[in-house]
Amino acid sequence: VPLLELDDVSFAYPDGTQVLRGVSLSVSAGSRVALVGPSGAGKSTVLALVEGFYPLTGGTIRWAGTDVRELPRAALRAQLGYVEQEAPVLAGTVRENLLLAAPDAGDDELWAVLADVGLTGVVQRSARGLDVPVGDEGVLLSGGERQRLAIARSLLSHPALLLLDEPTASLDACNENLLRETLAAAAADRALLVVAHRLSTVLDSDQIVVLDGGRVVARGTHAELVETS
Ligand code: ADP
Ligand code: ADP
């Protein structure tokens, strides 16, 4: 049984905008699935539905075989690490951001997760270490660094499935490479569902699902997709 399964999912926003039409996909434990496609295809909406922001208007989402409508929302969310596209970090320090997810974590654990996302060098550059500010005055962390901090924060709650929305959207090529390494580290012991518009970010996914106009128009590994296009 897959960890996550979308079965013929359709969705219209409350204003009537039909966004998803018969989307089916599944994410097995430990696997990496990427959702790609043009802006407006419905990729972010898929993640929002998994996170439970809106009720489905058609189809079923299952978690480990159980219809999510039968699961307590908090129990499901505890298994998910959802990193939104916008506002990935809060005002405060690196430490405060990380402790939000794991209030009892010690410095060793915090440094370990920062190493996973490639941030230790950045934080060590400041004498303030984990107490580097990241909010409005947080010029010490760039946009890409803040995004990696948001991922680090979600890793600390040990989700079974990481849901990442356009993690590289605002990143330059160098940061994109760092982030690909971050994803590889994050995927070592959990499943990943990643939204991206650049195929380069998700080359090493186990499956790439291409959405267009709210429909799945292709799926396969990168090699398979290149072969058939
Ligand atoms: P096609 O794209 O020609 O429909 P596919 O093999 O992609 O062929 O899909 C066949 C059927 O199986 C479709 O209904 C599709 O939605 C479903 N399907 C394919 N792969 C998956 C998957 N990983 N998870 C859930 N359903 C899938
Ligand atoms: P993608 O992530 O592929 O760019 P989205 O899932 O963000 O696509 O959006 C899909 C479609 O849904 C777009 O046409 C977008 O304008 C529309 N949409 C997104 N959010 C809302 C909302 N809250 N209310 C109404 N329409 C929305």
TrEMBL record:
It is found in: Cell membrane. Residues 4-229 form the ABC transporter domain. It comes from the Bacteria. Belongs to the ABC transporter superfamily. Lipid exporter (TC 3.A.1.106) family. This is ATP-binding cassette, subfamily B. The chain holds residues 310 to 538 of 551 of the full protein.
